[in-house]
Amino acid sequence: MYAIMETLISLLLMTHLSVAVHILKLLNEYSLTTTYGIKTEQLPRFNEYDFIIVGAGPGGSPVANRLSENANWRILLLEAGGPEGILQQIPLLSSLNTKYDWQYTYEPQKNACLGIKDRRCPCPKGKSLGGTSTMNSMLYTRGHKLDFDIWAQQGNYGWSYEEILPYFKKSQRANLREPVDEWYHGRNGYLHVQNAPWSTPLTAAFLNSGKQLGYDVVDYNGRQQIGFSDSQLTMVNGTRCSASKAYLRIRRLNLDIVTEATVSRVLIDDNNHAYGVEFIKNNKTYRINAGKEVILSAGTINTPKLLMLSGIGPKDHLDELGIKVVKNARVGYNLGDHVGFVGLTFLVNQSITLLAKNIRTPESVLQYAINGTGPYSTVVPAALAFIRTKLATDARPDLELVLRTRSFNTDGDGGKSRSISREVYDAIWKPIEGKDAWGIWIGAQLARSKGRVTLRSTNIEDHPIIDANLLDDPNDLEVLVEGVKLAIEISKSKTFQSYGSRLHDIKIPGCETFEFNCDDYWRCAIRRLTTTFNHEMGTAKMGPPTDPTAVVDPELRVHGVGGLRVIDASIMPGIPVGHLTATVYMIAEKGADMIKQSWEK
After folding, report:
1. Does the pTM exceed 0.90?
2. Catalytic choice (192, 504, 559, 579)
């Protein structure tokens, strides 16, 4: 990443004035100290606000925006991280394992992640204004109609697809290439959704291969999800459009935003009513009151952590840690994710990938700095396919294939972004370093394995225990095996063969006893090179009062505790198909409306 900055600086010295001015403007807008036009406060200006929101990601940022539309309400938004940085705005670059990442990891897995360092798959989560939307792959997918209809059938009134689609559209400002189902997209929302302005030939090859296999090229956020598609991205003019950039670049006197403020617990009185929060900034502890509600939007990992530290959680677990139980609830359970496999690599005989030497050029940097296009304006997951395998049990696709326009041998970090062990990397990818390669990541969409989040201690600084329990259900493994077979068929298509594509066939360490490319070999390989798509959800499950596993009700109010709601991915009762960020924006828009309806009557 620093090499890119050095290249930009050197270009400033060698290019003509207009280019230099443009780059300076870019650096100024996205400098490490700016808040991108977002007004922040060092500390809250008042001792009491009407609403306190914890977390400035795709849950909290929209809620802060929408509630502050009521000029009679005071809103406080607290974020543990700081402002975004310049490198987060460039789509191709990554801020994983930096100060913008909580750098969580799963507990060592029994059935998965066996080729990952210490068997601990990474669990990156954003720690800045914008939350994880500042560091994810920017993919905007909404899930399948049936996902939400099932939520409603479980007693969650108001959450059917027909009822939530207007909130997807409300959040969105779409500017997409064909094919696009116009009726399903919004044009006036805060969140920009676009296709990447530049792509490698691999994207077209992937889409053509899908057609050769009999699939349609579709708008996966429209009427039909099954098929092959160009990626729809949370992007504007070649830069990342995070939650904070979308929703917080507003100037409202009734909205205070405080960064680098780590909330340590929710304050709850003897009547089980939340009346404020405690937070830490610069090693000092502060308490702020909420006259109406506290809203937790800290995410699937940190929201259950805060609930439990505040006395809302499983009684036996809280008793072990000496935490006074306010409400015995199934907080931290139901942890779900899209489990995947990252071990497929295909070599090609032409320079059509995002190999470092192909893109780290003055021309590529200038192309981005001047026009906002070129390699730096794209993302590695360039196209998607949603497929129903023979194992599917309803109309939803149970498999996602993600085209990756480079592989670990070309990403420049030796697989560190996914914590691949040195032994595995050296055996598989080191022999082909410097060669053009691409990949397909496979994701099980309706994964049945469930994990749990628990507290490690009562210290807010300690990371929680995240046991994802990956591949515990054998069906998840079998769906991935079917995905591997389909991915290999794609690579054999006429289009990919025109680039000399071939499957990299060095056996993964630990799987040498199996015949390469048989089902048992792939089962072994998947258990070693497991990933999740980091779509963690479900740890504060939504459900009616009759559901003993539910933490919040269909209006996102915590069961048994007044003045407290949860608005983030942790409320999802089941995991939707695709990537979850778009759904969190929808939840936030709907949640904000429900709060308004409660208090504006």
Report:
1. yes
2. 579
Catalytic residue among 144, 192, 535, 559: 535
What would the pLDDT profile of 564-598 be if each residue is shown by its tens digit?
A: 999 999 999 999 999 999 999 999 999 999 999 99
* Cα four-point dihedral sign 135, 590, 38, 52: negative
Is 132 annotated as a binding-site member?
Answer: yes
Beta bridge partners of 104: 123
Q: Are 340 and 480 in contact (CB under 8 A)?
A: yes
Say whether 581 counts as a known binding-site residue.
no
Active site includes 579?
yes
| Helix 474-491 with 201-212: angle, nearest 10 deg | 100
Rounded Cα distance between 7 and 79, Å, is: 32
How far, CA to CA in Å, does 562 sit from each of 309, 338, 497, 566?
17, 33, 61, 12
Length of the chain in residues, anyone? 601
Q: pLDDT by residue (tens digit) across 29-50?
A: 444 344 668 999 999 999 999 9
N-term to C-term CA, the chain: 51
What's the pLDDT score for residue 35?
61
535 is an active site residue:
yes
CA distance 146 to 219: 17
pLDDT digits (tens, 9 = 90+) for 293-327: 999 999 999 999 999 999 999 999 999 999 999 99
CA distance 472 to 451: 9
